[in-house]
Every structure is written in structure tokens, then in C-alpha cells.
């Protein structure tokens, strides 16, 4: 199909796999590292190192799988078969990681994290690239990514209900019960949503990508100033959000003594994100994606230090603070991805190559590098400063955890704002790029529609 009508049903179907994607991503960032460090007894330094190594492995596989995603076309199209292939890999790794039988070793954690990331990369990369190719329109791309981001936040919201209920009921082994419940959520929902998406939404006709040697492609990308700036912003955003995710459970449970309320606090955060995604989308229409993203990051950097006003046991104040902070939750993720679709168009105009999958793999790579550095460095840092999760800690150790949680993300959000404030690829330039691409496509031989 040369065009694809973006009906509400198709948008819903396309976005639905983002629910289990988010349901997997949240515990990997927030719950699994503390679970293996504390309940499974592996310790902060070892767990931080393992999660960092697994993330860097994921970084290595991202560009490879991105090239494969661009190159190999089946009768389903270029993206959907990879999404289907990811499902059994994800299901097996989820069971092994979220429902482990103690004792476990560091090698066990590392192996299954690597397996999980292979499946997750196949799923997320193919899904993001598919979304970028559903429409060539500047604003419709924000609409598609807005639906996807809304589904991501909804997935985080839904998966948080299970640990919140477990916290409320007071399960005997709360940490293990939380993680297992979130794992079952993914196992049940992933095959259902993937089946809904791939059978409801087709793939729009796009010119088949031309093969470019990887070293040549890297050289072209390094010369793409739009790409360099966007990847730098994504790296900073990933480092900031990754630090907050890695340390949140420790801040809530040990520093602020709100362990039983941690899931409820996160619900407030992601709930606000769900509510305000439509507003962020409309603001991006009015002011442009790059400026909306920059202002959002600036607001995060100004607002995060206000968390010093929250004292131990101030649950209501913490809920209010996290809800306000969650207003900007969707901006960084979906706007960065929407801009990347435009950057891929710019590259296609300059080089004649359609490499959406490769470009999105680089975007995924930089956010994962940020998250890898965040968990590896911050866990080693707070371990070296004497912090012990779930045990009695000195005031100095607790203050070190809080300061790391606040100031490193604050600096990163300011960096994102500075990078994106004068981003040069705006709506007018993107429309001109699309005009050039469409003129070229009219001169290409027709390709078979993907139904």
C-alpha cells in the first residue's frame, strides 16, 4: 500500500505491543537490579557491573539487528516478521529472570540478560522503525509516536498495579512476589498484543534500502550533524533517567523510608505521564518538536532539586512531587524518536539510502549506553560510599544516594535542553525532504505492497 490510513483502530493496534515492552522495561530499570542485589544476594557492585555489561552487549547487537531489519524483506514486509520472532525469545528469558530459583550466580544473571536483550532489541527496534514508516507526514509521525508513547506509559502504569497490590497486602517475600507478578504480566500480554498488531496494521510501501558497507555508513552518520546532536541528547537523557530508575527503590525504601509506598509513588508518576501525553503532542505541533523537548528537559532540571523538600515519611508530598515531575515523562522519549524519523529522511535525501532501522538502532543504542553507565557507575559509587540496601546505613551514605539521584539527572536534563534548543531540522525542512523523497520514489520501479 502506497498510503496507510491512520485510523484509531490501526493506531491502537500498532501501539499495543508497547504495553508489554514498557512492562518489561520498567522492572529491568527499577526493580530487577535491587532485587538481584538485595533479595538474591549478589551485591551492588556485581549487579551494577552485570547490568552494565549486558547493556553494552545490547549496544553491540543494536546496529547489526538494525541493518538486518532494513535489509531482509518477506511477504509480510520489512518489520513484522522480526516482531513475531522476538516473542518466544522474550517469553523464555522473562521466565528465567523474573522467576529465578535461589541461589543464583552472576553468570546466570548475565546469560539470561543477554538473551533477553536480543529478543527485546528485535521487538523494540522493529516496532519503532515500523512506526516511523507508517507515515511520511511531519505531524502524523508525532501522532504515531504519541500513541506509542501513551501505550508505553500505560504499560508502566498497568504493570505497577501488581506490585502496588502486593505491597498493600504485605506478601511474605515482597521483593520476589513483585518481580514474579510483573514477569507474568509480560508473559500473558506480549503474544496477545503482537498478534493484534501484526494482523491489523500493514506496512506502507517504502523504497527497498540499498546495501551500504557498515564502515561507509558509520562515516556518513558521523558527518550528519543532525544525527550527532540527536544522539548526544538521547545519551544525556538516558543517563539522567537511567540514574533515577536505578536508584529509585533505594531512595524510596532506605532514604525516605517509604518502601511500602514505592509502587504507589511510581503509579502517580506514570499516571501523570499518561494524562499529559496528548498535551505534549499538541505543544509539539504548535512550537515544534525540538523546542518542546528542550523546554521539557529544562523544566525537569529545575524541578528535580525540589525533591530535597521531601523528608522521610512524607508520602503525600512525595506523591505530589512525582506526579508533577511525571507531566514531562513522555516528552523525552517520543519526541526524540519522532525527530529521529525526520533525521532518517534527511539522511535519505543526502545519501539516497533508506536506513530507518539502522538510525533507530543508534538511537536505542545511545539511550542504552546512558542507562548502562547509570546503573554500573551509580551502584559502584554508592557501594563505595558505604550504602547497604535493606540495612542500617549512616546518614552520610543515605545522603550520597539522594544526592546522586538528584544532581546527576539534573545536569543531564540541562544538557538535553542546551542541545535541542536550536536544533536545525524543523518542520519546513522536513517537508522539503519529504518532497524530494517522494519525487525520487516516483522515478523508482513500483514495489509489491505489504498487506
From TrEMBL:
GO cellular component, one term: plasma membrane
InterPro entries: MFS_2, MFS_trans_sf
One Pfam family linked to the record: MFS_2
Residue spans crossing the bilayer: 41-60, 81-102, 108-130, 151-169, 181-201, 230-252, 258-279, 291-310, 316-336, 357-382, 402-425
Domain of life: Bacteria
Keyword annotations of the record: Membrane, Transmembrane, Transmembrane helix
GO molecular function: symporter activity
GO annotation, biological process: carbohydrate transport
Family: Belongs to the sodium:galactoside symporter (TC 2.A.2) family.
Name of the protein: MFS transporter
Organism per entry: Pyruvatibacter mobilis
Amino acid at each position: 500500500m502506497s498510503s496507510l490510513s491512520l485510523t484509531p483502530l490501526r493506531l491502537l493496534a500498532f501501539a499495543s505491543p508497547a504495553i508489554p515492552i514498557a512492562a518489561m522495561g520498567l522492572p529491568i530499570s527499577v526493580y530487577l537490579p535491587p532485587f538481584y542485589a538485595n533479595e538474591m544476594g549478589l551485591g551492588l557492585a556485581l549487579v551494577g557491573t552485570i547490568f552494565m555489561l549486558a547493556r553494552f552487549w545490547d549496544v553491540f547487537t543494536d546496529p547489526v539487528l538494525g541493518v538486518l531489519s532494513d535489509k531482509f524483506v518477506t511477504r509480510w514486509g520489512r518489520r513484522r516478521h522480526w516482531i513475531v520472532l522476538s516473542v518466544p525469545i522474550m517469553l523464555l528469558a522473562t521466565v528465567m529472570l523474573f522467576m529465578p530459583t535461589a541461589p543464583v550466580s552472576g553468570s546466570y544473571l548475565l546469560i539470561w540478560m543477554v538473551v533477553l536483550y536480543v529478543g527485546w532489541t528485535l521487538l523494540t527496534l522493529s516496532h519503532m522503525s515500523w512506526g516511523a514508516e507508517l507515515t511520511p507526514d511531519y505531524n502524523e509521525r508525532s501522532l504515531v509516536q504519541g500513541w506509542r508513547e501513551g501505550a508505553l506509559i500505560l504499560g508502566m502504569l498497568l504493570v505497577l498495579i501488581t506490585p502496588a497490590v502486593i505491597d498493600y497486602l504485605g506478601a511474605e517475600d515482597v521483593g520476589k512476589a513483585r518481580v514474579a507478578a510483573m514477569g507474568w504480566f509480560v508473559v500473558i500480554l506480549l503474544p496477545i498484543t503482537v498478534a493484534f498488531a501484526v494482523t491489523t496494521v500493514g506496512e506502507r510501501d517504502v523504497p527497498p534500502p540499498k546495501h551500504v558497507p557498515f564502515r561507509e555508513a558509520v562515516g556518513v552518520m558521523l558527518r550528519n550533524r543532525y544525527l550527532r546532536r540527536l544522539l548526544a541528547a538521547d545519551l544525556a537523557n538516558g543517563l539522567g533517567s537511567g540514574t533515577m530508575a536505578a536508584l529509585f527503590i533505594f531512595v524510596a525504601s532506605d532514604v525516605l523510608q517509604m518502601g511500602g509506598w514505592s509502587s504507589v509513588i511510581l503509579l502517580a508518576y506514570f499516571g501523570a505521564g499518561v494524562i499529559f501525553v496528548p498535551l505534549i503532542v499538541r505543544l509539539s505541533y504548535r512550537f515544534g518538536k525540538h523546542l518542546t523537548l528542550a523546554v521539557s528537559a529544562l523544566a525537569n532540571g529545575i524541578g528535580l532539586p525540589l525533591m530535597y523538600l521531601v523528608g522521610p515519611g512524607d508520602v503525600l508530598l512525595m506523591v505530589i512531587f512525582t506526579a508533577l515531575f511525571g507531566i514531562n515523562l513522555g516528552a523525552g522519549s517520543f519526541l526524540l524518536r519522532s525527530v529521529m524519523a525526520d533525521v532518517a529522511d534527511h539522511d535519505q535525501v543526502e545519501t539516497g539510502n533508506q536506513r530507518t532501522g539502522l538510525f533507530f538502532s543508534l538511537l536505542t543504542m545511545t539511550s542504552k549506553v546512558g542507562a548502562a553507565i547509570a546503573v554500573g557507575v551509580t551502584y559502584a559509587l554508592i557501594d563505595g560510599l558505604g550504602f547497604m540496601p535493606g540495612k542500617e546505613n549512616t546518614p552520610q551514605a543515605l545522603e550520597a544516594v539522594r544526592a546522586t539521584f538528584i544532581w546527576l539527572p539534573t545536569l543531564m536534563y540541562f544538557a538535553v535542553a542546551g542541545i535541542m534548543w536550536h536544533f536545525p531540522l524543523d518542520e519546513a525542512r522536513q517537508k522539503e525532504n519529504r518532497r524530494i523523497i517522494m519525487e525520487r520514489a516516483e522515478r523508482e520501479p513500483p514495489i509489491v505492497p505489504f498487506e
